[in-house]
């Protein structure tokens, strides 16, 4: 039996996690869950946001399913999400954005994959005020050749394995000549090893506009940390919002699966959060541990329920009164 570390998260986390676990268990795949709290809940209980026993559990199991964790803005503790990615060197953030029939959105048949570098650049945590008066602040973004090579390698290998037609390298090398320039240079050289994949590059501002105007021209998108964070939310917007956007954080040993969205404090505790993104992330987890058939069943069941549009939360159908758990139950019935 597989043992997986489970972090429910906060805000809408516990509700959508309960829904996701029920769906996984309904597939018949046997998983032993090691439940641990992190973030705000861990501060209440253990006085620190990421206690050592949580890290040990993930280290031992190599796989984690994580609900969203709130990060205080400006003040307070640093992001536990970022800390976990750094702790386990989860250098790949894989965020697929796929259209579902039945979801109101400006585009149909979108099938994009954002491969975001997850450990470097502006998320490295090298930032400070320059003086006690806070008259200026600086954040240093470090991009390394090794860091660029491994994320670009992952993107090209992903494209090859999944027979994707193109890889677009996104950067701002016209202004960030060194960090952006290094990333682009590594990518262009590596592209020569993948002649069957059409490789191109775009400057981030142009890329954002083109994704909104004509997303079908793109396929796999690989980029540095901050741009990847923003573009993956943009891509979920193309397919109808954050409610159905899953993500995986992958390293050499550990993989952690979660929704792209955050803890949504505005709707927490109301049983109206869409559990779809975390359920789709659970399917990614199952595929990762070799449960391909159960993963496929979950994805098909989500697609069926969303297409029918009756048992979906109100973000997908504004007239709906269906709650988080009812949507999960409809997915279970469709498995
Ligand atoms: P958010 O993703 O939590 O919410 C953005 C908007 O989308 C809100 O209107 C919210 O109600 C809606 N939304 C999000 N998930 C939804 C769902 N499942 N169903 C229906 N509607 C949903 O972004 P935010 O408000 O900017 O961030 C809230 C907190 O989450 C912050 O502390 C942020 O740092 C944190 N966060 C955590 C993660 C993570 O754990 N990986 C990711 C992003 C943000």
Strand content: 15-25%
Q: Which strands sit side by side, in order, in the main sheet?
A: 2-1-3-12-11-4-5-10-8-9
Distance between the termini: 21 Å
Give every kind of bound small molecule, once each. Answer: nicotinamide-adenine-dinucleotide
Average pLDDT confidence is 95
What is the strand tally?
Answer: 12
Quickly give the structural class.
alpha/beta
Query: For this entry, what is the oligomeric state of its chains?
Result: single chain
**How many individual helices?**
11
What is the string of helix and strand elements?
EHEHHEHEEEEHEHEHEHEEHHH
Radius of gyration: 20 Å
Helix content: 25-40%
Instruction: Let me know the largest β-sheet.
Output: 10 strands, mixed
Shape: globular
User: Low-confidence runs (pLDDT<50, min 5 residues)?
Assistant: none
Can you characterise this structure?
The chain has 335 residues and is α/β, with parallel strands linked by helices. Helix content is 40%, strand content 18%. It is built from 11 helices and 12 strands. The chain has helices at residues 13-26, 40-46, 52-61, 80-87, 145-161, 179-191, 204-213, 225-238, 276-288, 292-308, 324-333; strands at 2-7, 31-35, 63-66, 92-98, 111-117, 127-129, 137-139, 166-171, 198-203, 220-223, 246-250, 255-259. Strands 2-1-3-12-11-4-5-10-8-9 form a 10-stranded mixed beta sheet, with helices on both faces. Helix 9 runs antiparallel to helix 10 (292-308). The two termini are 21 Å apart. The mean pLDDT is 95. The site of nicotinamide-adenine-dinucleotide has 20 residues, from loops.
